[in-house]
User: Which sequence fits this backbone?
């Protein structure tokens, strides 16, 4: 990517025009993981190639697109080192956008507004260790909710996210695919106030399964950096029209000094196990991790995560690269 | 792509040699579509990344290859923002070629000769709206003919297309895979005469299903540009040895003034519904569309298409980008 | 690729830093093949795009990753010019590595140690003609052994390969995925001594199916170049704890003069047909081939291969390109 950008700079300097282009970047990781369960220590590696396209109209509007080619996998047991991505959900994360004075409009596999505003807390490990630090958002498209209750039509992509920023204030609005025939629709609205060191965000999500089932959730997020410490907190409070109520929270602290970074988190979205929004990661958990920057796009990371709901744990140690 | 080509120019100027290379380009689109049927308005976005490889032998022959990585999709309902391409027909469109004084020989997912010579008329909409302007060619490989009659073994890729141009005259010859075991074979021959503003083409296609079923079709194409108007017309006349006969036609007019472009088409390949060559798009139809060039590779387009056979219609409006 | 590297050189010269980057290269081929069996002559083309990422840490360690996007295929009969790769085994060949004074550690779809040390003899034809020159290694992950005897759990990727070179001596150590739950594990150790013109290698492979079935094999390899002739020989001797024993061998000679290259091979791994390690290519065979370098990354190649076990043969002729 750096190469392409540099080349573009040369081109722009030489020819005096801006041109649409596609930058090719990537990430990779390799290491050892002892994941939740009984398989013991295993090798885990992954490669992802990213395509980032960008251009500009004559009137100065920016536009672009992104797509990913994956070799996902880690500890895959299908004999192929992880099927190679570009199928199904794995590479569903392509997006297309246009932006200008009116804000930014993105279509594709985008986050819902509440997620875009509040994000997630910091996780640990070079693989993320099942991302148990993350809370569950209702309004991200393509989510395969798979709860113990009644079947729930999932909100689907192509989703749309609109963002507008004025000074310290950002505004977000989103919708999953408008699916009048079979599916659920999820909509979200959120706002965020951020200064250099502090940010606070509030979002609302509504999931309408169109067969008289309806879910909704408020999400409050905050982050603050002082000294080398960054704190992130997310709290969600939801209910549906079937009498279920739930609360989620996640809190992380990351301490960075020179090339070293230490992270701890606690999270709880166990309440979701009682309704149709539950996913495999709806548990009480905590985690500890460390990361050391080797420079040039490489770092070494390790983490430990405890799943308190199932009383299992996982640990990993490995290298992460970005190109 | 422009970046890479510019870099190549810099390289060539600096080092003084030509080198084989792979250029990465792409297309994307985003917008709204109300397609044929009852689903109502939906979001539709798509990203495609193209790889175009090229080189030159010591004796000056040009060679190259092309491949596409897709996130196809539009209004996909499978929860993944469109499965991500690179599977099956979606990314079957890779090609390999060599060219020189003898002409150009291309293998892979190439069009048959008649299609290469006469092409298709202009369609409308940022998504193409099911491409109802297109006629059906017999000799393109990989086509899944799916008619109401007896089953037909489909002609298959790897196909081959040979092209030779001398002055205003171009000659085309093609064959689908030579499939002596199970499949059909389709062959085609065509010629085209083109000046700056006018072109006329004639092609013949033969599809031999090797179980005594045989189809054939003549295709006549023409195009003319005068003032800002481009007219395109294609007429096809075919029959098989089962007693079926059919005619197809499509006519389009595109008027371009400054950044604006207006297109209208009428088409009819409804006759094919009575034999094994029918596909989902064999209907009588007309369409109207407009496109406005925003510069830098972006345009906004919209279209309306009427399927007169099924008495349904579709409309879309969106942005298209090329990188 | 050359473009990107050149651009990087320009960047490095200008900015004075080294940066992680992703180079995009590719290969393609087109031609005719009359393969083993009764289908007769068919068209066969293929395109592969390769992503090669590389970077360097602040302390001078090199790291990188590779991935491939395929249009595989040749004579595919599925109507799509070969499904387009990036699925299953076809694109399983991604790797991630880090290297330095300690050697090189690679994870992903890597060869086992014995294979890394001894490789394979030279094959013939622009398609490889089923690679009947190759012997069967036990310790490459992702291999779908499919023998006539009892079922064998296959050793699986993610595999790991460690390489260390000191002067003329190289040392290799590998393991397939550590799969304590269901699968087999294969481990290998090998060493290689190479000077400019000669190389000799010795490797040991052990495949533990963990249900009391165990296979092992010694592999001896050698190569020598004198005048324009390169000889390669590989000999393998193995047995399992079920009473099976087998021997494999392959020998190739390639004569290169100017742009022309002639290759012949004889091979025999027919013994494997009597146990669970057999694959479709376990036969006695010989082959003859020629290749002519056209410059710029293009060559024309043809080959003939005789499968003496099944008394069938195959021949191909075509062009190969690298970009």
Assistant:
């Amino acid at each position: 990517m750096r190469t392409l950008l540099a080349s573009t700079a040369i081109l722009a300097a030489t020819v005096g025009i801006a041109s649409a282009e596609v930058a090719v970047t990537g990430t990779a990781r390799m290491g050892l993981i002892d994941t939740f369960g009984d398989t013991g220590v295993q090798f885990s590696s992954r490669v992802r190639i990213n395509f980032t396209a960008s251009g500009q109209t004559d009137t100065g509007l920016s536009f672009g697109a992104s797509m990913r080619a994956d070799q996902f996998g880690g500890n895959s047991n299908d004999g192929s080192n992880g099927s190679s991505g570009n199928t199904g959900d794995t590479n569903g994360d392509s997006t297309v956008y246009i932006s200008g004075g009116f804000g930014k409009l993105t279509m594709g596999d985008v986050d819902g507004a509440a997620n875009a505003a509040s994000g997630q807390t910091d996780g640990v490990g070079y693989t993320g260790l099942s991302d148990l630090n993350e809370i569950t958002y209702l309004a991200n498209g393509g989510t395969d909710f798979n709860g113990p209750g009644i079947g729930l039509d999932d909100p689907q992509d192509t989703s749309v996210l609109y963002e507008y920023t004025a000074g310290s204030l950002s505004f977000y609005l989103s919708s999953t695919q408008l699916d009048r025939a079979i599916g659920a629709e999820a909509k979200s609205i959120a706002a965020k106030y951020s200064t250099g060191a502090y940010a606070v965000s509030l979002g609302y999500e509504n999931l309408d399964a169109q067969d008289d089932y309806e879910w909704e959730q408020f999400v409050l997020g905050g982050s603050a950096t002082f000294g080398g410490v960054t704190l992130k907190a997310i709290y969600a409070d939801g209910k549906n029209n079937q009498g279920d109520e739930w609360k989620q929270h996640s809190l992380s602290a990351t301490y960075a000094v020179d090339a070293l970074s230490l992270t701890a988190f606690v999270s709880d979205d166990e309440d979701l196990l009682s309704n149709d929004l539950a996913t495999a990661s709806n548990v009480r958990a905590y985690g500890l991790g460390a990361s050391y920057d080797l420079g040039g796009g490489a770092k070494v990371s390790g983490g430990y995560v405890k799943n308190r709901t199932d009383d299992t744990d996982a640990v990993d140690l490995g290298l992460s690269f970005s190109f």
About this structure: Chain A has one domain: 21-322.
